[in-house]
Amino acid sequence: MTKEQLIVFDTTLRDGEQSPGASMTREEKLRIARQLEKMRVDVIEAGFPAASNGDFEAVRAVAEAIRESTVAGLCRASEKDIARALEAIKPAQSGRIHTFIATSPIHMEKKLRMAPDEVIAAARAAVRFARNGIDNVEFSCEDAGRSELDFLCRIIEAVIAEGAGTINIPDTVGYNVPEQFAERIRLLRERIPNADKVVWSVHCHNDLGLAVANSLAAVMAGARQVECTINGLGERAGNAALEEIVMAVRIRQDIFPCDTRIDTPQIVAASKMVSGITGFPVQPNKAIVGANAFAHESGIHQDGVLKHRETYEIMRAEDVGWNANKLVLGKHSGRTAFKARLKELGIEVESEQVLNAAFARFKELADKKHEIFDEDIHALMSEEVVTPEQEHYRLVSSRFHSETGETPQAAVTLSVGGTEHHAEASGSGPVDAAFKAIESIVRSGADLLLYSVNAITTGTDAQGEVTVRLSKAGRIVNGQGADTDIVVASVRAYINAMNKLSSEQPRVSPQGDV
Description:
By secondary structure, the protein is α/β, with parallel strands linked by helices. It has helices spanning about 25-40, 55-65, 80-90, 105-110, 115-135, 150-160, 180-190, 210-220, 240-250, 265-280, 300-305, 335-345, 350-370, 375-385, 430-440, 485-500, and strands spanning about 5, 5-10, 45, 70-75, 95-100, 135-140, 165-170, 200-205, 225-230, 260, 395-400, 410-415, 420-425, 445-455, 465-470, 475-485. It has an eight-stranded parallel barrel, surrounded by nine helices. It has a three-stranded antiparallel sheet with strand order 11-12-13. Helix 2 (about 55-65) packs parallel to helix 3 and helix 15 runs parallel beside helix 16.
């Protein structure tokens, strides 16, 4: 018996980046989109083009770059939003308009201030307008998890008649529980005429920790598209985690009547990339992609796994990409080998100038660290998302002093617009002193929201990857830096964030919810 396909709709670039501080530049979105395409994600929701010019350009760039996945743009149920989204996804090999309107009583009354009949009319008009521009249209009932069933039936029947090909039922506030949510999907499919002519989709939030469970319950009830994010990234408690849904369906083929086309060994690489770019580390005990997901401490477990893996492991670590990273480069590797490895990792550079800057950093790292892993290269490229043209601030040199019983000191020399400036400062630690020295030069007035350190690989010569989150005038940016010296990595991260704040390229604005 041939299995049905479960469509994987990834919204890491749209809903996922609504996590405070997780917004991405165009280059960062492109890197993640290429990895999603490599992973064989069916639909990539690239953003909300009407939200800002920056988001429009990012969606357009993804549409131009991606050829194997469908690229979707989100828009409210308005002609202006839809027209903007149509323009953004125009270059895509396969594009989709995803339009939505709220359908719960509280949203219609308090947010939209529209009567139910007005909401239905707006939904019909939106889908009709979108279908005039593109065949592939998805319609979402925002807050469907708290909407009245009879009203959902009315509005969905209306948009199907207008040509919507995918109907999405979001649990926008994570209110539902699996049995209830599955029954809702089942009843909608039973009661609505022509329900068999569309793909039923679900988009679940994790406020009660049930996003994946609700999504899987909906799949058992007939949903054939699941909207999810890498690492479960998303606002509040996050979204349904792509890796958990994909592997649950793949491992339990005895009960699921469908399967995805995801290339699962690419999952860990995608997880690490998203974590590095957003600065949101993955908890060690996170399913599938956590560092401890395949670790065994218990003697009984260790004994069982050694005798027969399946005693305590229901999947192989290599099936999702663990232990697949190859040791490929070192201090004697040349520029051609470095460029080829970037391509193998799905990392594309926009110019020779960017490549040259990245290669210089690679050679600098290779002089310090004998073995260069794929994770090291990902970290290096995360830092290189600020192109040389945008590098207003550049670290020239640094010196740190920390001694027991003495106040830590830092001295940094920065190039600011081509002119060198030197500053010294003291602090509660070398990192604090270094940041104060930098601030005495740049005088940004930015607030430090997050300082996070993670080891990239094992061993005492491992690089430390630092994420610095800065906020200024309502704009939030993440800076990344990596080095075998954690203080230097911290300085690089701070300067990386400062360059993003000073860059003319805006970060993407927060976007509407579904």
